[in-house]
Sequence to fold (166 residues):
Amino acid sequence: MNKHGLISLGVLVIGGGFVGPATAEDLYRVNVIKCGAPATTGDCGFFPSSPLPLDEGEIRSNDKGEVTVDLIGAAPDTTYKIYVGSFFIGGGFVQRYPDASCCRNIGTVTTDAQGNFDGAITTSPGAEFVFPAGTSLAQPSFVFTYIPVGGSEQVVYTTGFAVVAR
Fold:
């Protein structure tokens, strides 16, 4: 993904389903939502709506810094790169971890043949991703990208929350 693509990723996206309250061990728990999904207010900035399916997803981080990703009904046998940053209204997406330098992902997840994944993010050396002790991120957003065959990296999912009609 080029620097301008990630920086221009920038409309706050609201959609998905409510995952419920965080457990005592969870410090952070949020839905993973599809860019451009019905009932969202945007399409992940200048990026088009995601061509990939996603039934539901969730990211959790516990008090040890361990991060768990759960994807259900995503594209089968697909590897997603994951970035951490913040959205801001009218300006885009700013990467905030591991530093403010552009375009360094924290690792990847790969779905199985049914399009599901439940586990840790794998770093490039092959270890499980863990936030170091003392890490503090206000309002982090996780962004998932993939590279289609013959194409360039594109954003397909992000984290957000649901506004559910009653």
In short: The mean pLDDT is 77.
